[in-house]
Amino acid sequence: MRQRTELFGLGFQPFHNVAEVAINVLHTEQCDAGRLPLMITPNVDQVVKLERSENTALKARLSKAQWILADGQPIVALSKLSPSTDALPARLTGSDFFPEMWSLLKTHLDEKVFFILPDSALGERFSVERGKNVKFYAPPFFSLEDEEAFGKVKAEIEQHLSVFEADYIFIGLGFPKQEHLAFHVFDYVSGKERPLPKVFLLGASFEFYYGLKKRAPRIWQKLGLEFVHRLLSEPRRMARRYLIDDVAFVKIALKELFRKGKK
Asked: Across the strands, what pairs with 201?
């Protein structure tokens, strides 16, 4: 069992690179005790959102994920400052992980892969690229607060999984839609006599993979400044997130350091 680095109530895994993560995922047949075959990649924005009271129950379930990767340089830096926490060796993003995992899966064609994506054109590309045992579903726009619309999406996913017993499920619908759908998948499949699929919550990684969205230059990524590139690229969408909402991370980080220092 790999030692975890505990921060914000989440057990981050100290992998050194995404290639190491992909190999681990491929060869993991049984999760650690009490954990689900789920990957999450929290960044600063998600840490802030998970600290909100309305997400307490969601955070508790996400904390049981088998693979928790730090997609945020501030999280990695905090692990190095904390006196009672083993430092995380690297920032590991979902957008870097997916190409590694996808490359491996293209050599394991018997594994069934299911995508839940924002655009059916993305699904078509993945189907053509791998050529075997790939299915996808692109739900219509829906709100989690709209029980009828959300219920229809869940029912359609159940219909897909009833005839296509996926081994791997990749979801890219953003927080918190993809999180709630992942747990619905687990709840649905756990009622069947078959193993749970490995589920990955990777946000915009699939759009980055095909260049539909541009990532920051590599040097910006290494310096932990990818958020600046996203802010400049999508100012209307990202300004409130990075300049207002995520400022709360400073308080959360200081609280975490203080709590660790008292141990």
From this structure: 171
Q: How confident is the model at residue 1 (pLDDT cuts 50, 70, 90)?
A: low
- Which residues are CB-contacts of 184 (< 8 A; sequence separation ≥ 6)? 154, 157
The domain segmentation of the chain, as residue ranges, is 5-209
8 within 8 A of 51, measured Cβ to Cβ: yes
Q: How far is CA 218 from the centre of its chain?
A: 21
Question: What is the pTM assigned to this prediction?
Answer: 0.92
Q: How far apart are CA 206 and CA 178, in angstroms?
A: 14
Q: Which of 186, 203, 183 is nearest to 194 (CA)?
A: 186
Determine the Cα–Cα distance for residues 183 and 92; give it in Å rounded to an integer: 23
Q: What is the pLDDT of residues 220-247, one digit of tens each?
A: 777 677 776 677 777 777 677 767 778 8
CA distance 22 to 118: 24
Joined tokens for residue 248? 């709360």
